[in-house]
Design a protein that fits this description.
Elements: H1 2-10, H2 16-20, H3 37-56, H4 63-75, E1 78-79, H5 80-87, H6 91-103, E2 107-111, E3 119-123, H7 125-145, H8 151-171
Antiparallel strand pairs: 1-3, 2-3
Length: 179
């Protein structure tokens, strides 16, 4: 038993990333730490959510509610299905969030007069006030995170992101969330 343990201890350990995934040669799908573009995008998104939530906490707004408020502020009144699609959340999941925001007086829902099964959702004056109050702070946070990045680097970054978005939209055959 001791010999077997000693033999295992001498065996070289594989790093977790090379043991799990074989990296294709050539095109850099992984960074030097073994992360994909998708992984890094998710990480950065989560970091932005954490920083934004610090700002939103001042008004007791969750990040998920903020997404609805921002879409409504940008697009105006939308039917509930379109709002859910633009936020990227299933319409059934949206109902409790919309109920909560409506009870706080941030949104209003009105029935579609042509189809009583459908609802339109719009911001109330209070919802608009909150967006107008919080958005400058969110923009400041984002701007601060971009300090030290040149205009050319940022233009290149946007160009790459748009190309990725377009490619993924093509792959989705029309079922992609585009906003």
């Amino acid at each position: 038993m001791a010999k077997a343990t000693a033999k295992l201890a001498k065996a070289p350990r594989q790093s977790r990333s090379t043991a799990v995934v074989k990296r294709p040669p050539g095109f850099p799908v992984f960074d030097d730490r073994g992360r994909t573009v998708v992984w890094m995008t998710r990480t950065v998104h989560r970091q932005y959510d954490v920083e934004a939530q610090k700002i939103l906490d001042k008004e007791n707004i969750s990040i998920s509610h903020w997404f609805y408020l921002r879409v409504l502020a940008e697009r105006g009144e939308l039917n509930q299905l379109e709002l859910s699609r633009r936020v990227g959340i299933a319409s059934t999941t949206a109902v409790p969030a919309l109920d909560s925001m409506e009870s706080r007086g941030l949104i209003k829902r009105t029935r579609d007069p042509k189809d009583r099964r459908k609802y339109y959702v719009g911001l109330t004056a209070e919802g608009q006030r909150l967006v107008e109050k919080l958005l400058p702070e969110i923009i400041d946070m984002i701007t601060t995170s971009l300090e030290g990045i040149s205009r050319d680097e940022l233009r290149a970054f946007w160009s790459v992101l748009h190309k990725m978005e377009n490619k993924l939209a093509l792959m989705a055959n029309g079922s992609a969330i585009i906003d």
